[in-house]
Design brief:
2 copies of one chain form a homodimer.
Chain A: E1 21-23, H1 39-48, E2 50-53, H2 59-74, E3 84-86, E4 93-97, H3 99-102, H4 104-110, H5 113-123, E5 127-137, E6 145-148, H6 150-158, E7 165-171, E8 183-184, E9 191-193, H7 203-207, H8 218-227, E10 241-245, E11 250-252, E12 261-270
Antiparallel strand pairs in A: 1-9, 2-10, 3-4, 4-5, 5-12, 6-11, 7-10, 7-12, 8-11
Chain lengths: 302, 302
Amino acid sequence: MTTTTRVPDLYPSRVADEPRLGDRRDPVLHGEATGALTRYQRDAYQADGFLALSGFFPEEEVRAFQREAERLRASTGLRDREDVITEPESDEIRSIFNIHRTSEVFDRVARDPRILAKVQEVLGGDVYIFQSRVNYKPGFRGKEFYWHSDFETWHVEDGMPRMRAVSCSIALTPNFAHNGPLMLVPGSQHFFLSCVGETPEDHYKESLKRQEYGVPDPEGLEKLIELGGGIRVPTGPAGSLTMFDCNTMHGSASNITPFPRTNLFIVYNSVDNTLGEPFSGQRPRPEFIANRTDEAPLAAAG
Amino acid sequence: MTTTTRVPDLYPSRVADEPRLGDRRDPVLHGEATGALTRYQRDAYQADGFLALSGFFPEEEVRAFQREAERLRASTGLRDREDVITEPESDEIRSIFNIHRTSEVFDRVARDPRILAKVQEVLGGDVYIFQSRVNYKPGFRGKEFYWHSDFETWHVEDGMPRMRAVSCSIALTPNFAHNGPLMLVPGSQHFFLSCVGETPEDHYKESLKRQEYGVPDPEGLEKLIELGGGIRVPTGPAGSLTMFDCNTMHGSASNITPFPRTNLFIVYNSVDNTLGEPFSGQRPRPEFIANRTDEAPLAAAG
């Protein structure tokens, strides 16, 4: 006779009628110092839940990334793939998921030894790629992306048990204060703000374009911004790297400037934090959003 | 026998199939130095098409303005008035027009001697109020306002003949880079970018909520930003004043931060530039948007 052991839900969300602001029950820094991060970088990551490294990649490397992103965006045949998301009101590509499987260039970036060592230090050991994508936020009509904790969604909709994942965003265009850049709430990673409302089936199809569930309440957001350090907006040239904790509250405003915002986005998860059943009780989201089949420790590119 | 003399249309727009970038045919500074503006301020206004005076009103005065804005917003009965505009997806007040007629406090601000003297210097003599309003841009869900030249609309839809008007925006909340602040294209006032497409009748009812006509084309915008000095975003505390030319290209992104953005907006027009028939050939917009009946020279508050 087999019994099903269910992982306890340490972060219930979308179950109660009222939002609740609780404490994080996992470390922010899971590993000891390995030398990949400086002492200051460890302290800043612990305090803020993110680390912004302006101009991380030199110009020449960035140009190669930009060419690759443009090549992919222009390539016919991609548009109809399930892992390619278009803008709600046009046919323009907004995101290409599974980018480390689609592009050799970006597979190497995802396994860049300098990035990987930092991520391994934060997560305390081996990691795998939970999700990867290129996001194209066009100029003039770039849509906003409302505040959210990635972990809230990954927990409820994908069954990620603990807060032990890191996102890396690599800017392929300059981030100004005015072209809809990533905004983060420093310190918000220390709390878990549960959301209200049940998740409808196949929610992901809509949520990749517009969010309606897993949305934090205004009072909770205000409280987080008050408890934390306000709102921070890392700016910098193409090639800048922002590493952030899976639970750091973030979002971005619309972009009406002519300056597009393109970034490479890679989510690393600890091999000790692989996905279970979604805590919503619903069927798992597709593989391209939440990798369940390739959880082997990632090796650095040679 | 009477003949109708039509004012020549120096700035045709929404008539051709292609947008066109032409030159301004009016001065930016219409008046000689009177001492109201410093030498630097004159030069900056001529160059940029705007002047940002951070913290123009002292805190105590600003608090009185803020109380007045909140009182008006909360007052029942205003919501159904024609000159009060609500958000597209809620009943929240977005703008109260005719504010200098509705509020004694704001009437005095509109006739503030320091502001009036600056405006008179720029416009070269007596002025009247063409339009006035308070704008409430809420936190979390504040909508974007796409790029536009006010003059383009005032010319086509209201029959304003020449570029001889100045807008003053007085911040009643702090302007950060991240809460959907006013963005301007310095130098854009020197050009006239005509727009494509005819204006539908009663366009104003929709345009106050969402713009579809009088929208500059992407290539023209890029050219303006290249010819001018990029994009500038004045930030500052509540009480900051931004004066800008009627033809300076401007817009604002959405506001997902909890920090609302409220401002008092007053448009001064030269008494030598009063409205004629709309150049669109259509019926004039209502009085609360484009004042035609009270064109007497404005007197400074005592």
